[in-house]
Design brief:
Keywords: Methyltransferase, Transferase. This protein has about 250 residues and is an alpha/beta fold. The chain has 9 helices and 9 strands.
């Protein structure tokens, strides 16, 4: 029996949500967010939301990692073990350019929830990346509106370096992950030689990006009790995945 992804997502939410522009909104007019950096303001621009999916993200990620978007999606689907996952939460999903292809990797009846704070990004996600196994939610990732152990897989790709309180957000991602579930992140990496590292860190700081070292998320996952931690670094990005033990 077909299940409406909107209604299924409502059943997973721990807060009341209003349907706006095709996505569920738990924030309304109040975000209580800090003053955004330049990079964060860009993510809330309707123009950036329009070009991000087709031009900005594919080009920037290839330069930063040497991976195409399609290769990154395949790695993510494998690391998250989506072939056996019923529910996926994609934190800071932007225009849904990862949410939609990852949803297609889920079994029949599975659900991928794209989560973001930007209205223009979510409006673009609804327009371009909707499907029978996707739903989008607007909220603050520092306080995910889901109960503990809600999702079989949780991910955040190319956003933690933009966000306030990235470690708090990561702990929230671990909180809503079910035992036996997989978590994966793709974020910045500052493990290069000293001259390159200093140049990258200085440039990132000018536009409000955070550069993370090789230990930040490996140590966070380990301290949270996660196992099977795998880290892959390439150029200026790192991919870290782990399992929440049963």
């Amino acid at each position: 029996m077909h299940t409406d992804p909107l209604e299924l997502t409502r059943s997973l939410l721990s807060e009341t949500a209003v349907l706006r522009h095709g996505f569920l909104d738990v924030l309304g007019e109040s975000t209580s967010a800090p003053v955004p950096t330049f990079a964060q303001r860009a993510m809330n621009s309707p123009f950036v939301a329009t070009v991000y999916e087709r031009l900005w993200r594919p080009a920037s990620f290839y330069l930063a990692s040497g991976f195409t978007a399609q290769a990154e999606q395949r790695r993510a689907a494998a690391a998250l073990q989506l072939h056996s996952a019923g529910t996926l939460l994609d934190v800071a999903c932007g225009p849904g350019n990862f949410t939609a292809p990852l949803a297609r990797c889920l079994p029949a009846g599975g659900l991928a929830v794209g989560f973001d704070i930007s209205e223009p990004m979510l409006a673009r996600a609804v327009a371009d990346n909707s499907g029978p196994q996707t739903c989008y939610v607007r909220g603050d990732a520092r306080m995910l509106p889901f109960d503990d152990e809600t999702f079989d897989a949780v991910c955040c790709f190319g956003a933690l370096y933009l966000m306030p309180e990235p470690f708090r957000i990561t702990h929230e991602m671990v909180r809503v992950l079910r035992p036996g579930g997989r978590i994966a992140i793709l974020t910045s990496y500052s493990g290069q030689t000293a001259p390159i590292r200093k140049a990258l860190t200085a440039t990132a700081g000018l536009i409000g990006l955070t550069m993370f070292d090789r230990h930040s998320f490996v140590d966070l996952f380990a301290s949270a009790g996660l196992v099977d931690i795998d880290q892959q670094a390439q150029r200026a990005l790192q991919f870290v995945a782990a399992t929440k033990p049963r």
